[in-house]
Design goal:
This protein has a two-stranded antiparallel ribbon with strand order 1-2. Helix 1 packs across helix 2 and helix 5 packs antiparallel against helix 6. The chain is globular and about 65 Å long. The protein is built from seven helices and two strands, in the order αααββαααα. It is mainly alpha-helical. A hairpin with an 8-residue loop joins strand 1 and strand 2. It comes from Paractinoplanes toevensis.
């Protein structure tokens, strides 16, 4: 019986490995460079492409963060100014960003250094993790904008993987005052050129 279970597990593992390889090839065929980002694998990249659709429907990275639930929510009280994680937003993309953050924290990455700087500045682990996820949201947004720009420049007409039946197509989430972007904005020239092209 144990031998049969081991054989079954081996078959499942081989099927999973093959499916992962096929997914990686499909994602690479879209032309995206999301998998170049530390902590994003084939399934995370595929989920981003499917859920996000056309990245330029988000006017800026703050709107993108609001949509994916990484934008901070003001939870200040009296003289104490603080923010908390949003429980709203697209939970599947939030999970992709959470996995990305967790992978970065396990390795000597810029994400790990950023988290450590936040902790050294007096943030709790939860607050530092919130800030890291927000920063990673900006990085993902910038990469997807870059991918869309390259796709337009090469004549493919937009970000691959977009579905006209996407449940999120056309939504522009509201961004409140506590949901402002962190420093290092995405290149505004890219957005201008993309808007004039479309």
């Amino acid at each position: 019986m144990a031998a049969e279970l081991i054989a079954d597990l081996e078959r499942v593992y081989q099927r999973s490995k093959q499916a992962d390889k096929e997914l990686k090839e499909l994602v690479a065929a879209t032309g995206t460079r999301l998998m170049d980002l530390h902590g994003i694998g084939p399934s995370g990249a595929a989920r981003l492409l499917i859920e996000v659709g056309v990245i330029i429907r988000f006017p800026d990275r703050g709107h993108f963060a609001s949509w994916n639930g990484t934008a901070p929510i003001d939870a200040s009280s009296g003289d104490q100014v603080r923010h908390r994680l949003s429980r709203a937003g697209n939970r599947q993309i939030n999970r992709v960003l959470h996995i990305m953050a967790t992978v970065q924290l396990r390795n000597p990455t810029e994400g790990r250094a950023y988290f450590d700087r936040k902790k050294a500045a007096g943030k709790t682990s939860m607050e530092a993790m919130r800030a890291l996820k927000r920063r990673l949201s900006d990085i993902v947004y910038r990469q997807m904008v870059n991918d869309a720009t390259v796709a337009m420049a090469t004549g493919s007409g937009g970000h691959q993987g977009t579905s006209t039946n996407s449940s999120v197509t056309g939504s522009h989430p509201h961004t409140g005052s506590s949901e402002k972007s962190l420093p290092e904005p995405a290149d505004s020239k890219l957005r201008t050129s993309m808007q004039t092209t479309s």
